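Researcher: Quick test of sequence recovery. Tokens follow.
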């Protein structure tokens, strides 16, 4: 299947909300407990938030399939924080994360940014490492969910551009 990387469009919002939900709930259980997946998934709002983020100046790179349907995306904040990198489970292991990270890096370089940084799940960490990111430390924290604090972790990672 042929894919393309393109800028976010307003009509992508619903599809991106579906991508993140599918990724968390179908891929997440490979590294996280059911409670962690539920808490993680509950933190991500619906389509309107993508429109808000784009309006705030965040750049969203979309991987689209041959019919121009979004199947993966990366969200880059103006300061170089890569806040999201999600891939629909039906479209993993096809190099989309690598392509999205390359698009984000090229954009960051064009802005003169000195580094990119993120908080990567255990599942996303290998993709970031292949793209040249280095883990600086493991982040242990909790997410409030269902009247409890659910412990979870991710990895602070960065890539120097200069």
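Model:
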């Amino acid at each position: 299947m042929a894919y393309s990387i393109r800028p976010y469009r307003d009509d992508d919002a619903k599809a991106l909300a579906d991508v993140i939900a599918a990724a968390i709930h179908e891929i997440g259980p490979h590294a996280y407990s059911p409670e962690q997946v539920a808490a993680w998934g509950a933190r991500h709002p619906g389509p309107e938030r993508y429109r808000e983020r784009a309006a705030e100046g965040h750049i969203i790179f979309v991987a689209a399939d041959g019919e121009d349907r979004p199947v993966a995306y990366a969200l880059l904040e103006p300061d170089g924080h890569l806040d999201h990198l999600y891939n629909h489970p039906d479209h993993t292991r096809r190099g989309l994360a690598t392509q999205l990270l390359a698009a984000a890096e090229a954009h960051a370089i064009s802005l003169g940014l000195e580094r990119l940084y993120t908080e990567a799940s255990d599942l996303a960490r290998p993709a970031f490492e292949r793209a040249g990111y280095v883990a600086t430390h493991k982040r242990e924290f909790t997410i409030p969910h269902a009247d409890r604090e659910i412990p979870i972790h991710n990895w602070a990672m960065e890539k120097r551009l200069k």
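Residues 13-27 form the longest helix (15 residues).
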